Amino acid sequence: xxxxxxxxxxxxxxxxxxxxxxxxxxxxxxxxxxxxxxxxxxxxxxxxxxxxxxxxxxxxxxxxxxxxxxxxxxxxxxxxxxxxxxxxxxxxxxxxxxxxxxxxxxxxxxxxxxxxxxxxxxxxxxxxxxxxxxxxxxxxxxxxxxxxxxxxxxxxxxxxxxxxxxxxxxxxxxxxxxxxxxxxxxxxxxxxxxxxxxxxxxxxxxxxxxxxxxxxxxxxxxxxxxxxxxxxxxxxxxxxxxxxxxxxxxxxxxxxxxxxxxxxxxxxxxxxxxxxxxxxxxxxxxxxxxxxxxxxxxxxxxxxxxxxxxxxxxxxxxxxxxxxxxxxxxxxxxxxxxxxxxxxxxxxxxxxxxxxxxxxxxxxxxxxxxxxxxxxxxxxxxxxxxxxxxxxxxxxxxxxxxxxxxxxxxxxxxxxxxxxxxxxxxxxxxxxxxxxxxxxxxxxxxxxxxxxxxxxxxxxxxxxxxxxxxxxxxxxxxxxxxxxxxxxxxxxxxxxxxxxxxxxxxxxxxxxxxxxxxxxxxxxxxxxxxxxxxxxxxxxxxxxxxxxx
Length: 549
Prior knowledge:
Elements: E1 9-11, E2 18-21, E3 28-29, E4 40-43, E5 45-48, H1 53-57, H2 75-91, H3 96-107, H4 113-123, H5 131-143, E6 155-156, E7 159-160, E8 170-172, E9 175-177, H6 213-234, H7 246-263, H8 268-277, H9 280-286, H10 291-305, H11 307-325, H12 330-338, H13 346-360, H14 367-383, H15 387-400, H16 410-426, H17 430-440, H18 454-469, H19 473-490, H20 495-508, H21 512-521, H22 523-526, H23 542-548
Antiparallel strand pairs: 1-2, 2-3, 4-5, 6-7, 8-9
Helix pairs in contact: 2-3, 6-12, 6-13, 7-8, 7-10, 7-20, 9-11, 10-11, 10-13, 10-14, 11-12, 13-14, 14-15, 14-16, 15-16, 16-18, 17-18, 18-19, 19-20, 20-21, 21-23
Protein name: Clr5 domain-containing protein
Region (Disordered): 181-202
Pfam family, one: Clr5
C-alpha cells in the first residue's frame, strides 16, 4: 500500500523542500532531519529508492524518515532582519552573495539564495529601474518649473535616482531604445555649471521632452550612425580616413567661420558658405569617418546663429548625398533625419552620439585609430557643452599622448587645442601660457618675427586665443598677426580663418578702425571669395570696411 501519494507532496515557500501532508490532518508536518545513507541520494532533491516492500509496510507513517531539508525560517524572523537586509542590498548596493555572507557573519542568520530571492521579490526590493519608473520620473521632470528642475528629489526603489540614468536606453526585443532624448546641459539648471557667455542662452519655460516623433527621429538617426560606423570599421571598399583631413577642415571650418561672419552681418559669409558647400561632393565620395560628426556639430553651430541658413545648408547636403550615395545609404538617411530634429534637442542628440561612438571604440584594436576617433568624440562633447566628459576624455588621451612631443601631428594639435579650451573654461591661464611660449622658443627669433614653420604658426594661433580670453587685446592681436605672417610663408594653413579670428578680436574690443584696416591690408586674401559671391555685382568686400569707418 502506498504510504505517500503524489497529491500529499507540496513545496514549502521559504525552503524549497518537500513536506508531507497527512490524510487525517490538514496541518503541515515538518520533516525531521535524516542521516545520509546509501539508501538516499541527495542532489538538490532527495530521491527515495530501493525500499523493500516488506520493510516499508512494517513502518508506520509517523516513524518513516521523510527527507533531508533545511528548517523553515518563519516570516517573523525574516521581518526582524528585514531592515538589515534592506540596508545591505539597497542602501549599500551589495550583491546577494555579499548580503548572505554579511548576515551570516554579523547576525548568525543563514538562508539559501532561493530563500533570499523569494523574500526580496515579496518585499518588492530591486536595484534596477523599470521602464514605467523611468517614464514616471521623466514625466515629473517635464512638468517641473524650469527654476526647480535641477533639484527634483527623484527616488526609485528607496534610493536617490541619478538623473543621467533616465536617458540611458532600455532594451526592447534585444535592442536599445531611447525613452527620451537627453536635455541640453544648458537647460538643466545646475548652479555649479560655468558655461562661457556664448553658451548661456535663456532657458525655455518648460523642457519639452517629446516621446513621439522627436524621439523616434533621434533613435533612427543614431541607429543609422551605429550601423554605418560599424560597417566603416570593418570595410575595405574605400580607404579609411579616421582623422581630421584637410578636406574636412576646409569645408567645415569654413562653414563655422561663415557663422561668425553672419553674427556681424558680413556679406562675405555667403561667399564662404558657397565655397565650403562646393566641397561636399568630394567628401561624400571619400567618406571620411569624421564626416557625420562634423555635419552634426557644424549644423548645430550655424543653426544657432541662423536657423534658415542652417537648414538650407543641410538640405543641400542631404540632396547631394541622395544623388551621390543613393537613398538607402546611412549618410543620406542621417542627413534627412537630422532635418527633423529641432534646435532644443540638438545638444541631446550630440551627447548621445558621442556616447555611442565612445562605446564603439571599445572594439577598436588599433591604438592610432582609437585615438583619432576619441579626438572626434572630444569635439562632439565640446559642441554639446559637456565639458566634464570632454575633460575626462582629454586627460585619458593626453596621458597616452604627451603634449611635449616636438612633432606637430594632427592628433597633437587637436589635443593642444583641447588643453587651451579647457584652460580657458577653467580660468587657469598661467600653465598653458607657459607651455605655448615654450613651443615658440625654438621657432621665433628674438626680434619677434615669424619663421613660418607649422609649430610656431600653431602656437601663435593658440596664444592669440588665450590672450583674447584673458582680456588682453594688444597681445591677442600681436600673436594672431604673427600667425598670419607665418601662414602666408608656409602655405599650409587656412589664412581666412585666422583673419576672421583677428577681426572678431578687434571688434569685440571696439577696435573697429583697426579691424577695417586689417581687411584692407589683406584684401588679396579675401579676394579669393569673390568668385563664390552671388552679390559681387552690387557689393564688394569694401562693404565691411565702410560699415566700420
